[in-house]
Each structure stands twice: as C-alpha cells, then as structure tokens.
Amino acid sequence: MTARLVLQSADITRALTRISHEILESNRGASDLVLLGIPTRGIVLARRIGEILDSIEPGSGTVGFLDVTMYRDDLAKNPTRAPSPTQIPAGGIDGKTVVLVDDVLYSGRTIRAALDALNDIGRPRAVRLAALVDRGHRELPIRADFVGKNLPTAASERINVHLLEVDGVDEVTIEGGEA
Amino acid sequence: MRHLLSTKDLSRAEAVAILDVAEDMADVAGREIKKLPALRGKTVVNLFFEDSTRTRISFEAAAKRLSADVINFSAKGSSVSKGESLKDTAQTLAAMGADAVVVRHQASGAPSVLAQSGWIDAGIVNAGDGTHEHPTQALLDAFTIRRRLHGASARGRDLDGVTVTIVGDILHSRVARSNVWLLSTLGAHVTFVAPATLVPIGIGDWPVTVGYDLDAAIAAKPDVVMMLRIQGERMNAAFFPTAREYARQWGLDDERLAKLPASSLVMHPGPMNRGLEISAKAADSAQSTVLEQVANGVSIRMAVLYLLLSGTTGEM
Predict the structure, then answer these.
(1) Confidence (pTM)
(2) How many Å apart are CA B140 and CA B61, to the nearest integer?
(3) A3-7 and A171-175 beta bridge pairing
(4) Is residue A173 part of a domain?
(5) Cα–Cα distance, B175 to B140 (Å, whole number)
(6) CA dihedral (B275, B281, B284, B289) positive or negative
(7) Max CA distance (Å), chain A
(8) B2: how many CB neighbours lie within 10 A of its CB?
C-alpha cells in the first residue's frame, strides 16, 4: 500500500495559523472563545490553535476537550469503545463561542455526536467547526467553518493524520484507493 | 466483556480498563445533566432473589444514567414465591427482551448458572451470590482506593504495593472474596484479620496473609482498613461469644482509630453496624470513605453496564 504525502509539517503549521486568524476574524476578536478538541488528534490541534491564538491576542486560547464516545450512533455496531476524559475549561461554555476542532471531517457523524454532547454540558452562544482536513463524503447536513485543506477522496481511500505529540511526526498522507 | 461473574476472571489490564471507564463515568456525575445516551433502547433487569436496597438502587441509578430502561424484579411477592424455577424466570426475562440481567441470589454460583445455561442470551452481572463473590463491590473499593491515593492522576494506574487489611466475617463475606482476587490482581497486599471461627477452610491457597489480632494489624500501619459487616442473617452458629466481645476484639473503635496513621483509609461496604464492627467516630471521620464508596458504586456499575452492553462482540 502506497501512502502519498499531502501535507507536510510546514503546511500543517500554515493551515493552523490561517485557521486561527479566521477564527479571530469571524469572532470579531478573542472574547468568549472556547476551543474544544475531539480526541485523539483534535485535542492536539486545539492546543496548537490555542497557542497561536494566545500569541496573537494573549489570553484568548482557552482550550478543553470533549469526548463524544457515549453519543455516537454506531456504538451497537462496533466493538466496545473505551471513552476518554472530557475537560471543559473552568468558565464553562454557557454564552461562549465554542469552536470544535477535529483532524478529519468525513461523514459528519462524529460532529453530530459532539453537538449532542455539548447540549448536555451547556448552552453556547454559537458552535463553529474547524477541521484540518475535509475529505468530503458527508452523510449529515454538517459543514466546517474553518478548513485546513479540502482533499477530494474516494471512499476507499484512507487519510492518515500524524501529529508530533501523538505520532512523533507531523504529516498528512493519503493511502489506498487504486485497487 | 460478555458477563461479569467474578473478579477472578479479570486480568490486571482489564481491571484497570474498567476503573478508567469509571473515571469518565464519575465525571458525568459532576455535570448539570447527569445522563449519557449510550445505552438508549437497552433493557436492564435487576433480578434480586435476596434483599438488597443499596446495590439494587445503585445498579438502577447506573442504568438510568446511561439511558437504559430498568425493570426491577424481586423474588418476594413474585412468581418465584409461587415456586417458579430459576430457569423459567430466566426464560421469561429473555422473552421480554432483557439485554442485561443483574443477579443477586442467596446461592453461590447462581449467576454463573444463568450465564452458562443458554436459557437467556443477556449479559449477566453478578450482584452478589451467596458467599461466593460480589465483583462490583470489589471494583468500587479498588476505585475508591485508587482515587484517594492518586487523585486526578489515577487513570491507568494499578494498586502496586498498597497494603489492605480486611477485618471481620471473612467466612460469609463475598465482598472479602471478590476483593482478594481483584486487589491482588492489581498488585495490592491483602491481610485478613478475623476470629479464627470466621476464617474459611482452604484460605491457605488464597493470596492473603491471615492474622487474628487487630491491634497487631493496625500497628503494621496499613494503607487501607476495610471493616466487614457482621452478617446477623448468616450467623447460624456461635462464631463468637457476644457482640460486645467481638466489638472489643475486632471492632474499629475510637482507640484503634487514633493509632491508625492519619493517611490510612477506613472503608466499609455498608450497611454499617455502628458500635459493633465500626465506631461512629471512625465511620464519620475524614479517613472514612463510606459515602465515597456509595457514589463510586454508581460510576463503577455504569462502567460495567457500558462495557457489557455496548459494542457488537463485547470485546474491548
């Protein structure tokens, strides 16, 4: 199986920097922003965006993470998934603008689960979605507000997002599909 | 996980995994909306052949927090008192579409009969069978110890090197049995202290040290002292002369509490006989984890029900 490199470390950094600026622009500043990463790699990306936001407007990078395992619609159809912790920043999410951060946006089902999970935690003023890669094939009426890279793919292909903190290297590759 | 019948079946990794899931479940208890949709549409039957309030409502709370439907079946005043067999009861529950059955039975081994019989396809959780095991109690005890010792960094950790002294009616205690297997699997050292008449035959094969003197056990400064209830309902012979003598020799009274290191935990599975195996001061002290155990019980049972009922294969 050949893996084709689509984003390198510098590309990822550039995309996250642009996303950070777009978040600030659409929010008209950094007030009441909460970034929530979706495990596993969404947490890493949320932290990185948080750091960039902090460097642009100090104090603006409030980061937490949101586990959506218990809200998935495919729990009964897959082997048991172990949940991971959720951490909501001290100020809560009521009245805030929450930006969900995930690595790959695909069917949209994870994001649907995340919206349900948010619903049980509080009532944000607005919820936005940032994804490093949008690969298409949506099964629900969900779209991302901030996208690192649009990658048109075949459903048989696989997108691998590798990040330094988890995998020891920063890269996005695309695999398979030719068969 | 298909069934939970005994803590003997659990490996260290499996036990730690259950405790970790319970950590996530415990987080939910701190939220405004204490409910998860994970088991929507699943039916959990609490099948209780023996009186129990706290275990039953703990399982009920756990199932409801995961959005499962709960049916309570207690043998008293039911078809069982008219002479229905365990087999017919199980098949009736199967016909009603139970996905999990939480069983408490006065006979040791009843849950494992249900699990192996093929009468019912549901996942079976042992909620106490005779003098055999009470696995969720042991899991919640281990969870409580781990949380007190490691706090927020408890995830992924075992109980390596922790010393636990279990005091009281070992002979009749399924809590003690489940704890021995689980705590030693997790790496803790377990010591039993009991009157010689309340130590079971064959204890030499268990991974425990047995002692008869509580004062000596307390002088050894254990990390945890777990007091067991004197089970009046199972006392059919004179195991000790009087309740007062038991309290004097094997009860955790104020004097013994004072000799215990301030960091040692005092545990009790409940319900407590204040003044008999534990003094009121010990039960209400800051070292006591009695109420935490109750709260943690719900989290552990949520974790067990989740692991049993979600997923296709039940593998984790």
Answers:
(1) 0.92
(2) 15
(3) antiparallel
(4) no
(5) 11
(6) negative
(7) 50
(8) 12
Beta strand A3-7 with B43-48 is: unpaired
B63 within 8 A of B44, measured Cβ to Cβ: yes
What are the strands, taking DSSP E only, across B155-282?
A: 163-167, 189-193, 208-211, 224-227, 265-267
CB A72 within 8 A of CB A63: no
Please report which helix (H) or strand (E) contains residue B127, including its range: strand B123-129
Which CATH number characterizes residue A141's domain?
3.40.50.2020
Q: B135-289: same fold as B7-134+294-309?
A: yes
> Would you place residue A178 in the very low, low, confident or very high pLDDT band (cuts 50, 70, 90)?
low
For A21, other C-beta atoms within 10 Å of its C-beta total 14
Measured in whole angstroms, the distance separating CA B217 from the mean position of its chain's CA atoms is 23
Burial of A58 (C-beta count, 10 Å sphere; 0-12/13-18/19+): exposed
What number of other Cβ atoms are within 10 A of residue B248's Cβ? 10
Residue of B nearest to A92 (CA): B31
Range of the domain at A55: 9-75+82-156
Asked whether the predicted pLDDT for residue B315 surpasses 80, the reply is no
- Report the complex ipTM: 0.84
Instruction: Transcribe A33-68 into DSSP letters.
Output: EEEEEPTTHHHHHHHHHHHHHHHHSTT---EEE---
What CATH number has the domain spanning B7-134+294-309?
3.40.50.1370
Does some domain include residue A64?
yes
Decide if pLDDT at A179 tops 60. no
Q: Give the mean model confidence (pLDDT) for residues A21-36.
A: 93
Fold designation for B135-289: Rossmann fold (3.40.50)
Closest residue of chain B to A67, computed from CA coordinates: B24
> Is residue A118 over pLDDT 80?
yes
Pairwise CA distance, residues B63 & B73, whole Å: 15
Of B32, B38, B312, the CB nearest to A70: B38
Please check whether residue B181 is in contact with residue B143, taking contact to mean a CB–CB distance below 8 angstroms: no
Q: Mean pLDDT, to the nearest integer, of B2-16?
A: 95
The minimal CB distance from B37 to the residues A67, A83, A116 is found for: A116
Q: How far apart are CA B208 and CA B217, in angstroms?
A: 13
Task: Give the residue from chain B lying closest to A73, CA to CA.
Answer: B38
Interface test with A, best of B20, B35, B36, B99 (most A CBs within 10 A): B36
Q: How many CB atoms sit inside 10 A of residue A42's CB? A: 26
> Residue B314 pLDDT more than 80?
no
Chain A contacts of B38, Cβ < 8 Å? Answer: 69-71, 75
Residue A117 lies in a domain: yes
Q: How many domains does chain A have?
A: 1
A90/B contact by beta carbon, under 8 A: no
B35 touches chain A (CB under 8 A): yes
Of B17 and B240, more confident? B17
Tokens standing for residue A160:
């691998």
Note the pLDDT of residue B313: 52
